[in-house]
Amino acid sequence: MDTWESFKMAGKTLAANRLRSTLTMLGIIIGNASVILMVGVGQGAQKYASQQFQSLGTDVIFVITGTDNARRNVIAPPNRLVLADADAIAEQVPTVRSVAPQINGSELAIAGNNTKRATLIGTTDSYAIVRNAEVGSGRFLSNDDIKRNARVVTLGAAIAKELFPQGNPIGQLIRIRGTSYEVIGLMSEKGAFLGTNQDDTIFMPITTMTNQLTGRTSPYGVAIQVINVSATSNDNVDAAQFQIANLLRLRHRSTDMNAEDTFTIRTQQDALEIVGNITGALTILLAAIAGISLLVGGIGIMNIMLVSVTERTQEIGLRKAIGASPSDILTQFTIEAVILSLLGGAIGTGIGISGVLLLSVVTPLQAGISIGAIALAVGVSGGIGLFFGIFPARQAARLDPIVALRSI
């Protein structure tokens, strides 16, 4: 019997037992759909995180006060960077384009009868340039505001809606710790980033925040938590990072050059690599968990095929009696198992792709359709069908035709 004839006979047999064939394929369908969908989710998460970081600016460098080990000390947290450090970086590092020092806080903001706790950032006019922040209306903080210690603020989109739900906030007053501040601008919506709503932020001149709220918390000057720096170009990020580190080491180590750094420098690329590694590992984990369904589906195919061999003992005996060889029987049963796997893989692929497209529509994740994941899932499902179909097929091929015919 030729291979084409074996395919035709296998197809007729599977068509005659539609319910059993469908249930047999179910594990493969679920497995393929799960693998494709989970890989799509993982890749979508990678793209989303990358876009969120890039929206902050690809040439941004963050100089953070303290080291990772020192920041774990909750009893005496480090407070080493000062405003003079930011000024020194701006003046002495040639590969730096803009510098924006930053003081963080959390305060209750009051506007009329509306009260909202918001993140408070004291910074300079360079912040909008370094962090790629866009003003929706009004204006951001200016250099004159910094020099005059002006009592002005620029609101994030979310906090503006909370405090002024009925109208335009520009020109209105808000109160923080009993002091009134004029709203001079409204930032464009930027959304959440790493669990923090960037629109739920109030920006204030760093001098005003120091004089009105935080005070002088370091004997060496105005203490700050972060220095936001933008390099002159993406190609100069590494050079700027090296030059900033050397400058701060000179400023912070007057005598002991072997002392530990009192700061940490991070770049956008560092953050992207960390997020990429995390989401990549999660993608592999999700795909591996989903791949278990393929294994279960393969075992289901073997079980059903073994049952099929028992049910078709008479058919096998008759075919052998009229001249079918063991290889013909082996080929037919193997083809049936492979057809079930490949057909289930194709249906599962269609469901998985549909799920990925639906996910892209209803969520912010730009889930991608991975050709590699599709090829791997379909190839694995076909291989599973072949692997788990061999044993039942050999069982059928080894049946003694005399014993099989006795059951007629």
From TrEMBL:
Q: Which GO terms describe its molecular function?
A: transmembrane transporter activity
What name goes with this protein?
ABC transporter permease
The record lists the organism as: Pseudanabaena cinerea FACHB-1277
Sorted UniProt keywords: Cell membrane, Membrane, Transmembrane, Transmembrane helix
Chief localisation class: membrane
Q: Which domain of life is it from?
A: Bacteria
- This protein's record includes keyword Transmembrane helix: yes
Residue ranges annotated for the ABC3 transporter permease C-terminal domain, each copy included: 288-401
**Would the keyword Zinc-finger be found if you checked this record's keyword annotation?**
no
The entry's family comment says: Belongs to the ABC-4 integral membrane protein family.
Q: Offer a single GO CC term for the protein.
A: plasma membrane
What membrane topology is given?
Multi-pass membrane protein
Q: Which Pfam families match?
A: FtsX (PF02687), MacB_PCD (PF12704)
Q: Where in the cell is it found?
A: Cell membrane
Tell me where in this chain the MacB-like periplasmic core domain is found. Answer: 21-246
**Membrane-spanning parts:** 21-42, 284-309, 337-361, 367-391
Report the InterPro entries cross-referenced here.
Answer: ABC3_permease_C, MacB_PCD, Macrolide_Exporter_MacB
